[in-house]
Amino acid sequence: RSPLAGRVLSVESHGDDFMDGEGREFAFLREKSSPVQKRFVIATDAGQVAVRLITSLAARRIETWVRDGEEI
């Protein structure tokens, strides 16, 4: 499912690194995976549109099936 129709120009992943919680108020972040993000750039009739998927601190991954160059 996509928010709009077009051709996928790029798919990028970000945020797989571990965070260092500093201080007592951030202790819950120690050794937690940071929020994972996937960013798609889609070429549409109206121009290029970026779509970003972001997880919470509890989720560890985002499953996507689209690839560069695919029509959606």
What features would you describe in this structure?
The structure is a single chain. By secondary structure, the protein is an all-beta fold. It has a domain at 7-54. Helix content is 0%, strand content 33%. It has no helices and three strands. It has strands at 7-14, 37-44, 47-54. Strands 1-2-3 form a three-stranded antiparallel β-sheet, with no helix packed on it. A hairpin with a 2-residue loop joins strand 2 (37-44) and strand 3.
Give a brief outline of the structure.
The chain is mostly beta strands. Helices cover 0% and strands 33% of the residues.
| Count of DSSP strands | 3
Biggest sheet strand order reads: 1-2-3
User: How far apart are the termini?
Assistant: 8 Å
The tally of helices reads 0
SSE order: EEE
The biggest beta sheet, please?
3 strands, antiparallel
Instruction: Give the percentage of residues in beta strands.
Output: 25-35%
Principal-axes geometry comes out as elongated
Please estimate the helix content.
under 10%
Radius of gyration, rounded? 16 Å
Class from secondary-structure proportions: mainly beta
Mean pLDDT: 79
Spans of 5+ residues with little confidence (pLDDT < 50)?
Answer: none
